[in-house]
Amino acid sequence: MCGIIAYVGNKSNAGKILFEGLHTLEYRGYDSSGIALINEKNNIKIYKKKGIVKLAKKKFLKEKISSKIGIGHTRWATHGEPNNKNSHPILSYSKNFAIVHNGIIENYSILKKILEEKGYKFRTDTDTEVLINFIEEINKKSKFDFENSLNTALRQIRGAFAIAIINKKIPNYLYGARRGSPLVVGISENNFFLASDASPIVKHTNDVIYLKDNEIVKISSENLKITNLKKEKINPEVKKIELKIEEIEKGGYDSFMLKEIMEQPKSIKRSMLGRINVNKKNLFINGINDYVKKLLNAKRIIIVGCGTSWHAGLVAEYFFEKYTRIPVEVEYGSEFRYRNPILNSDDVVFFISQSGETADTLESVKITKKKGATALGIVNNVGSSIARITDEGCYLHAGPEIGVASTKAFTSQLIILFMIGVRLSNRLNIIKQKKYVEMIYQLNNIPKLVEEILEQRNKIKNIAKIIYKKNSCLFMGRGTNFPVGLEGALKLKEISYIHAEGYPAAELKHGPIALLEKGTPVIVICTRSDEYEKTIANIEEVKARKAMVIAILDSKNKHVSEMVDYSIVVPQIKNDFSPILNIIPLQLLAYYVAKYKGLDVDKPRNLAKSVTVE
Ligand code: M6R
Predict the structure, then answer these.
(1) Please, are residues 351 and 304 in contact by the beta-carbon 8 Å criterion?
(2) Active-site position among 68, 269, 491, 609
(3) Residue 570 alpha carbon to ligand 1 centre in Å
(4) What number does the ligand 1 atom closest to the CA of 386 have?
């Protein structure tokens, strides 16, 4: 949700550095982009444009000015429509300061009114312009001490922000601050970077500082100083990022989404690495070791997430309840945080998040901790806010996920949740040793089975060709595969813009069946389970309305294959692990449908990779 990159140092190609960074960050928002530089005459030069990064860069390349300091931004619009004027960077009224901002200023309308009464005129519809003018107004009063002005202003701001600011009156200094939205400082000798995440920094350095909420950083090529809002000096902890450049490149694929779908055998394996030990016939979830006892005695487990991560939580609800008999509730972060949830010290709450920065999930962690319950994270992005503030947690180790549609993070979330469920169940003596070992073998074999499904991609592509002109699709499954239907529908709608809904198969007759017409695609997840026969009966109901059934099967059941219009056969797997296989064809289906429609799968309209605003 908006990407920030900023640079100050001894290189005079700041513009190039910033645009390279913006290309890497584009997955965070692509409504508009731009940079602001301070040139040799100490003037602020801005190059920004509605649309993808390439367009703003084109403007810059016409002038190609040399500069050693600048800020850049790729936008996902919140206040003000995505157009040229609302693009960041945004200048203050005097044009002395330029700012880039990720987040939402909640009290912007009151501040705007105050500023207007003082004679400020606004050139954009953004809350960001209010923020920079508010800083400017305070700066006028505080005898032009910018650091103090920033501090005073931020203490009066409500809402979330990560900001980077340049000031032509002190042209060698870059300022940054955060609350709620992430900001990372990269350090490479006399060159410093500020960014929303480590991905644009890794090209330059592995040394980073993760700024904490309410910290302000002041940087020149000589010096870096961090203070908090109480004006206390902070001794920063420099950490190493483990990201490799290849991991954030497309590696020969036409999109990050396809690359990430195809690398799932590897990413799932990475999630199991060091956790599953087939030789020792055991599995270890070291990340949450200190809380295993708490989990075993938990009165209830709550799982919180948004979007795809919430779907992973739903799969876990079925799995955990079946195998641990501990009651499980699954909550959207956006609902959980506002309903004063009843939490006790013997509740354990899992927070699932690929990015580790989703605002609603992050806020839910804070509430959980305040209420004294245990907060455990299942996060992909190492060093992210959720990973840092939860009591303990398991990293997915799926590698960076850049495609806006989450794919490999989902399967890694599932494998982690399955491992936790199996381990707990064994400790609770519900899964006995023999079955425990058998399940470990099955989990270990999943990457190979995923590979087998990926090999069928041409068949799935052919099915996509049949449905890409349709207006609406339904997905249905039962039990643990109902959330797979939800996830399949989410994938299709977010990248192909085809209306899609997921339902528990039996629920169709309670309403959605009215939507069925001749040829409406209904994707049915019908792999073997206790409810298998019942799902087949649901297929009959759909076929009776002349809808088009595409079935995910796990055996060549002649009767079902003949009944449905198209089938995709996935390998058989036991013990409720099937969601991790069944989602793969649905990811591929969504991908190929979007490709047939000529859409950019990595930059679906209106979306951004990480939702750091509520
Ligand atoms: O980073 P998170 O897992 O917390 O993100 C949650 C959702 O925003 C995310 O899963 C979103 O729904 C994806 N676009 C789904 O593909």
Answers:
(1) yes
(2) 609
(3) 26
(4) 4
* Beta carbon of 407 within 6 Å of any ligand 1 atom: no
Of all protein residues, whose CA lies closest to atom 9 belonging to ligand 1? 307
The arrangement of strands across the sheet holding 472-477 comes to: 499-504, 472-477, 521-525, 548-553, 566-569
What's at 6, amino acid-wise? A
Catalytic residue status for 2: yes
Say yes or no: do domains 250-455 and 456-614 share a fold: yes
- Supply the pLDDT for residue 326: 97
Report how far ligand 1's centroid is from the alpha carbon of 138 (Å).
Answer: 38
| Cβ–ligand 1 contact at 610 (below 6 Å) | yes
DSSP E strands: which ranges in 140-183? 159-167, 174-179
Tokens of 524: 């049915």
Q: How far does the centroid of ligand 1 lie from the alpha carbon of residue 609, in Å?
A: 7
255 lines ligand 1 (CB under 6 A): no
In this predicted structure, the answer to whether residue 156 has a pLDDT above a threshold of 80 is yes
Query: Whole-prediction pTM value?
Result: 0.85
CATH top-level class of 3-247: alpha beta
Decide if pLDDT at 144 tops 70.
no
CB 456 within 8 Å of CB 584: no
- The Cα 302–Cα 318 span in angstroms is 13
Mapped onto helix, strand or coil, the DSSP state of residue 524 is strand
Tens-place pLDDT, residues 488-531: 999 999 999 999 999 999 898 899 899 999 999 999 999 998 88
Q: Please tell me whether the peptide bond between 89 and the residue prior to it is cis, using omega within 30 degrees of 0.
A: yes
Q: How far is the CA of 267 from the centre of ligand 1 (A)?
A: 17
Count Cα atoms within 13 angstroms, Cβ side, for 455: 9
pLDDT confidence bin for 588, thresholds 50/70/90: very high
Asked whether 358 lines ligand 1 (CB < 6 A), one says yes
pLDDT for 68-117, tens place per residue? 999 999 998 888 888 999 999 999 999 999 999 998 899 999 999 999 99
The residue to which tokens 């919180």 are assigned? 304
The answer to whether 82 and 31 are in contact (CB under 8 A) is yes
Concatenated DSSP letters of 483-521: HHHHHHHHHHHHHH--EEEEEEGGGGGGTGGGG--TT-E
Domain 456-614 part of CATH 3.40.50.10490: yes
DSSP 428-466: TTSS-HHHHHHHHHHHHHHHHHHHHHHTTHHHHHHHHHH
Per-residue pLDDT tens for 73-83?
A: 999 888 888 89
Which of the pair, 575 or 375, is modelled with greater confidence?
A: 375
Mean pLDDT (whole number) for 372-379:
96
pLDDT value at 304 more than 80: yes
Give the ligand 1 atom nearest the CA of 333: 4
Position 483 pLDDT exceeds 90: yes
Domain ranges of the chain: 3-247, 250-455, 456-614
The amino acid occupying position 322 is: K
Question: Using an 8 Å Cβ cutoff, are 287 and 275 in contact?
Answer: no
Tens digit of pLDDT for each residue in 186-202? 999 999 999 998 889 99
Is residue 334 lining ligand 1, measured as CB closer than 6 Å? Answer: no
Q: In the predicted model, what is the mean pLDDT of the chain?
A: 94
Tell me the CATH architecture of domain 250-455: 3-Layer(aba) Sandwich (3.40)
CA of 406 to the centre of ligand 1 (A): 6
